[in-house]
Amino acid sequence: MMGWQVTDATIADLARGAAVLGTGGGGDPYIGGLIASQALARYGPVNAVTVDELPDDALVITVALMGAPTVLIEKPPNLNAVVGPIETLGAYLGRRVSHVACLEAGGVNSTIPVAAAAVLGLPLLDADGMGRAFPELQMVLPTLYGIAASPLALADEKGNVVVLQTVDNMWTERIARVACVEMGSVVPFAGFSMSGVQARDSLVPGSLRRCVEIGAGIRGARDAKNDPVQRVVEQLGGRTLFAGKVVDVQRATTKGFARGFARIEGGTGILTLQFQNEHLIAELAGSTLATTPDLIIVLEHDSGEPITTEALRYGLRVRVIAAPADPRWHSAAGLALVGPRYFGYEMPAHRFDGTIAPAP
Fold first, then answer.
1. Using CA atoms in the order 70, 205, 126, 165, what is the torsion angle rounded to 10 degrees?
2. Rounded Cα gap, residues 322 and 329, in angstroms
3. Closest by alpha carbon to 266, among 298, 230, 296?
4. Beta bridge partners of 65
5. Contact partners, residue 177, CB within 8 Å, separation at least 6
6. 186 forms bridges with which residues in the sheet?
7. CB distance 311 to 228 below 8 Å
């Protein structure tokens, strides 16, 4: 499959599909769509290229927002802040950046790179570093391949710019998170610079195209008077976990994360979702139905629109579905990085189908 173009007509489907894969995190798709549409209107469409089209010596830079999605609603970044870290990192490395890439699939973090690519006139890589969203910076597949997050550049709307050079990706997360909080709890960053060879090995290929297809599938099912939630289940190869009404949400923004839980009441009891930006655990009547690293997704009951953790509220009628993650996340190293125990839940990882499978 060869490259394609991201246009303003593509953005709504891209943002919607990315919010589905974002498992409740990755930022508000509406805000991300607005930022990308603004950049595309001013600078024109963006060429998306596949990993197979990358030259071996390409310089691929990932760009994303770090911080609490709850804060992003009040303080979306401007375009200068979005492109600033990429320009800073290119100057720091002494090389011309050749491609922009997404670090995660999420409502904002799959569209912010579109805006950056448009402003800078660079091609966008049709791939991402997770195949979903996770809350911490080191939680990407490139970490499993030994690719360093640093040098990492952060910039805010005030003009502050920070470049970090750290000993490993965990330290990048720890130091960058402190800087993020001091810079307003939401900050654009650029990092994980890699060659074309490294990008082909470590990223999830075709994920932006997949986001567009998921978003278009939801829209198409609605237009055809079909069930959009079932359409998502089929596209992801997942299953429906639960349907009901949100009866309780407890959420707080702490240390740059939106942490909390939601309870959803339905015919078979009350489902509890635990989240840290993204949904991590789904439990019903004392049984664990699914856990990180597989995808736990909340969709509006009738429209199929994805609902982020910051948008969950009392009275919403929703359906919760689970879907498989990239299989690399179920390796021993992957589970150590993003499994339930990392987040403080003393349980093994449960696959999206409810089974407990040993790491390969």
1. 60
2. 15
3. 298
4. 188
5. 66, 136, 137, 255, 256
6. 67
7. no
State the Cα–Cα distance between residues 74 and 61, nearest whole angstrom.
27
> According to DSSP H, which parts of 145-254 are helical?
169-182, 196-202, 207-223, 228-236
Question: Which residues, 6 or more positions from 293, have their beta carbon under 8 angstroms from its beta carbon?
Answer: 132, 325, 329, 330, 334, 335, 338, 339, 349
Q: What is the CA radius of gyration of the chain?
A: 19
The 10s digit of each residue's pLDDT in 117-133 is 999 999 999 999 999 99
CA proximity to 312, closest of 283, 352, 345, 279: 279
Residue bearing tokens 């953790």: 309
Check residue 251 and give its pLDDT: 87
d(CA 156, CA 55): 32
Per-residue DSSP letter, 306: B
Main-chain dihedrals φ then ψ at residue 15, nearest 5 degrees: -65, -40
CA of 267: how far to CAs of 11, 156, 250, 264, in Å?
Answer: 36, 47, 22, 10
Question: Could you tell me which of 49, 57, 140 has the C-alpha nearest to residue 97?
Answer: 57
- Is residue 141 a contact partner of residue 327, using CB atoms and an 8 Å limit? no
Regions in the chain scoring below 50 on pLDDT: 1
Q: Name residue, tokens 């401007």.
A: 78
Which domains does the chain show, CATH number per domain?
4-207 (3.40.1610.10), 227-343 (2.40.390.10)
CB–CB of 21/13 below 8 Å? no
Q: What is the reported pLDDT for 358? A: 66
The whole-angstrom separation of Cα 140 and Cα 219 is 30
- pLDDT digit string, tens, across residues 252-283: 876 667 789 999 999 999 999 999 989 999 99
